[in-house]
Amino acid sequence: MADQVQGLDAAAFRSALAQFPAGVTIVTTRSAGGTPHGFTASSFAALSLDPPLVLVCLDQGADCFPAFIAAERFVVNIVTPAHAKLAMRFATKGEDKFAHGSFESDEGGHPILPDAAAVIRCELEQAIPGGDHVILIGRVHDARVGSGKPVMWYRGDFLHLGQSVT
Asked: Could you give the CA distance from residue 47 to residue 68 in angstroms, rounded to a whole number?
C-alpha cells in the first residue's frame, strides 16, 4: 500500500480503521474440482433481511480470489476465541490453510467449522469491485447458531467479548 493515497496518509487511515472493533469470520468455498479455499474477513455484514443477503469483502490479490469468483456457494464461519490461530492462518498468504483445523464438509462439500459461533451458507449472488477488494454478496440459504461466543478484531489483536480494553 502506498504511504499516501490522493493526499491521505495510509498509515493514519489504517490506524483509524483499527479503532473500530469488527467480528472475525473465516469464509470458505470449494473449487469445481473439490479443493477447499478460504480467507479470514472482518469486513462482513448483513445486507438485507428480505431477501436474506450478506456481504463479505475479499482482497483481489488473495490466493483464493479466483476460486471465490468462480464459486457458486460460500460459507461464512463466525469464529470464536478458540479459532484465533486458525483465523491468523487463513489471513496469511501462502499458508496451507486447511492443514490444521476441525473443518467438516456440508452436503455440498463446502468446509464448515462445526464449533463456530454461527455458520451462514450462501449462494454467490453478485461480486462487485470495490477498490483493491471485491464485495461478495451472498444469498443466505441456511444459517446455524453455535454455542460459542464470537471474537472481535480490535487494534491489531483479538478481543474477547467481556474483555476490558486498555
From this structure: 19
d(C-alpha 50, C-alpha 87), whole Å: 30
Q: Which residues contact 50 (CB under 8 A, 6 or more apart)?
A: none
Cβ pair 151, 82 in contact under 8 A: no
Which residue's C-alpha cell is 487511515?
13
Q: Which three cell numbers stand for residue 155?
A: 487494534
SS3 (DSSP) at 134: strand
3-state class percentages of the chain: helix first, strand second, coil last, to nearest 5: 15, 45, 40
How far is it, in rounded angstroms, from Cα 164 to Cα 166? 7
CB 44 within 8 A of CB 54: yes
Q: What percent of the chain has pLDDT over 70?
A: 92
Please say if the pLDDT value at position 83 is more than 60: yes
C-alpha to C-alpha distance for 89 and 64, rounded to whole angstroms = 13
81 preceded by a cis bond (ω within 30 of 0): no
- CA 166, 21, 80, 101 dihedral sign is negative
| pLDDT of 116 strictly over 60 | yes
- Report which residue type is found at 86: L
- Classify residue 91 by its DSSP letter: T
